[in-house]
C-alpha cells in the first residue's frame, strides 16, 4: 500500500509499505477518512535530520502520518475481545498507546502513561494517511451510525481536543467564554460551547475565520489586530471580564490576553501546542484569584462522549471541513494547509 510521509523541510513523499497484518490484540482498519490537524505542520516543517516525535520515542524508519483516522474493521488478530472489535464495524481511533496496564492507560488516558514510551499513531508509529492502519483493539472507539467518517476523523483529534478542554473548564449556560483562535480546534470549541449554552466570544485575526465563527454559534467576534481584545471583552461583559477563556492559538500574546480577559475567579485553559508565555503573576493571576489549566486531547471515554453529544445536539461537524482530498493530492493539500489561510482538510480514502 502507499502512505504519506514527511521527510522534513516541507517536503512530502508517498511511499510504498507492506499491507499490515494484525498481530495478537490488534486490528487492521480499512481507512475511510483521515483528517489534517494543525499539529501535522510541526512534523511537516521540521528540518531534515530532526527525528519525528513530540519528545517521544524515535520512530523506526519512515512513518505514515495522519493522527485523525476513521474507518472500518477489516481484519482482527488473535486474542481480540469481540466487545472491542467486530469485522465491518465503523470505528474511530484514540491515537495513542502506552503500557495499557497503569492507571492512566486503564482509564482511557494512554497518552499520559508514565511507564513506557508512548506511541502516537501518525507521529512515531504509522498513522492514517494510507489505505490501511494496524492498531491495538483497545484504541478503538465506536463511530455512531449518524456520523460520517469525516466527522469521526474530526472527533479523533481536533474536535475531541476542543471537547476535552471545554470539559476541563466545566462550561455551562451561565458562562461567557472567550475563545482565542478560530482554526479547526477553535471553531470546534465555538460549536460545542454554543451547544452547551455558553455565550461565545470568538477571537481571530482572520475576518474569514470570524465569519465562520459567527455561523458556528459565536455571539460576538473580535479581531485583535484591530482592537485591544481585553478591553473589548470587558466592554462586552459589563466591565467584569469573561468567566472562562480558551487559547487554541499557541500565540504567547494571545495566551496572556486570555488570562487578562478573565473576570475575578475566572479560569483560562491552554490547549494550543508548543510555545512559551510570560505571566505577571500578581496582577494577572494572584490578585484576581484566576486559575490557569491545560488540556491535552481527551480520553477514550471523552472521545465517545463527544461523539454522542454531537449526535444528540445535531451539531454539524462536517461543516468544519473546507477541503476534501485524495491521497494522490497530499502534496497540494499540505502546501495549502501550510499557508494557514484555509480551514480544515480531510483525505477520503
From TrEMBL:
Record Pfam families: ADH_N, ADH_zinc_N
Family: Belongs to the zinc-containing alcohol dehydrogenase family.
Species annotation: Roseicella frigidaeris
Name of the featured protein: Iditol 2-dehydrogenase
Enoyl reductase (ER) domain mapped to chain residues: 8-347
Origin: domain of life: Bacteria
UniProt-listed InterPro entries: ADH-like_C, ADH-like_N, ADH_Zn_CS, ER, GroES-like_sf, NAD(P)-bd_dom_sf, Zn_alcohol_dh
This protein's UniProt keywords: Metal-binding, Oxidoreductase, Zinc
Range of residues in the leader sequence: none
Molecular function GO labels: oxidoreductase activity, acting on the CH-OH group of donors, NAD or NADP as acceptor; zinc ion binding
Record keyword Nucleotide-binding present: no
Cofactors: Zn(2+)
